[in-house]
């Protein structure tokens, strides 16, 4: 099943919690208001946020309860997971969605403040870590992680993107605390800093790397999938809310499953809906959420993702953002299992579809899939003025990227795309005849 990041500022986490009184579940008489915190532009949470909201699925599920209550949904949009956690632990938000590292902080803060929360489902994931990318300016001379020594790198401390940066630097033999000058910035601030030249690189989560590359404001330096460690986004709910309103939480999870199925069945329409709601280019949304996109969407809480969550704890502890986190007690799949019934076992056993090359023709309601990057290039060469977007998977990690932004190699008759210079260099090291060519050169060879 196909289709499946979140900046979390350490400073924001330490801000005092809101003290406006009351609780998320409000209303008068038989009216119950359910408050959902989501992140519209963190597009790997759309099945629990932007897309779900636009489809009206949750409201429909609530109307079908017929339990004597009238339900109203209060949708609250945030830029990151930190304020959602703050509002949840203050009793202001019932259900929220965020990335894996913020989820751990959500668990830690909830336990610390006596407002325990639980991971109740997954939205989007990538088993190799491809949802996070390190990018540099388009004209940057930086060519590898090693080139970042002593450089300024912007990220959001406590986010999955920061976790990717830390792990990648460690593997490259660079001390993430002393080997670079790390700037703790919100994604938009970091993007502006990169454009202004006040930072040398930016490590961020979906959809920032793809957006900046699409706009011609950045190029990939490091593909997070090189780590080969899962990264994901999920849904968290307050324990007291889940116990008091289990049918409401199950209604949300049924609606999430409906949104997930819609995304699978109508990937182009889903991308257009999300683009309209967020202001993001639909081509960027599709890069991550499309039929062969970087993310896989599935509500099931897979064991591989839980294991990855446990490995993430050490990164947050080292950054002094949390202490120990009891991941096993945080994960609670009873509600999603009940909501999805017999389908849950099938979803739990499902795996991401193989990566594929894909073209989105202008004016088309569907995309075209090709057996190889070379076949895609051949089509693009013949229809240059009729292409809205062309996507190709990295030859080694499988991470989808824009064809015109990829690093291309020619190895005999093969034309191979790579997201970043590092994966391309690694391939060349094992293939003596392989050499870097331009995108224009790749198109010429394929035509």
The percent of residues in helical segments reads 25-40%
CATH superfamily heading of the largest domain? Periplasmic binding protein-like II
Rounded average pLDDT: 93
The total count of helices amounts to 19
CATH architecture of the largest domain: 3-Layer(aba) Sandwich
Strand order of the largest sheet: 2-1-3-10-4-11
Biggest sheet record: 6 strands, mixed
Termini distance? Answer: 34 Å
> What is the CATH first-level class name of the largest domain?
Alpha Beta
Total separate domains: 3
Mass-distribution shape: globular
Organism: Streptomyces liliifuscus
Keywords: Signal
Pfam families: NMT1
Protein name: ABC transporter substrate-binding protein
Question: Quick recap of the structure?
Answer:
This protein has helices spanning 10-13, 50-55, 57-63, 82-89, 100-112, 160-171, 187-196, 208-214, 239-244, 246-265, 267-278, 282-289, 303-318, 327-330, 334-340, 343-349, 373-382, 421-429, 439-446; strands at residues 31-38, 70-77, 95-99, 117-126, 132-136, 152-155, 181-184, 201-205, 219-223, 231-238, 296-297, 357-361, 368-370, 387-393, 400-402, 407-411, 414-418, 435-437. By secondary structure, the protein is an alpha+beta fold.
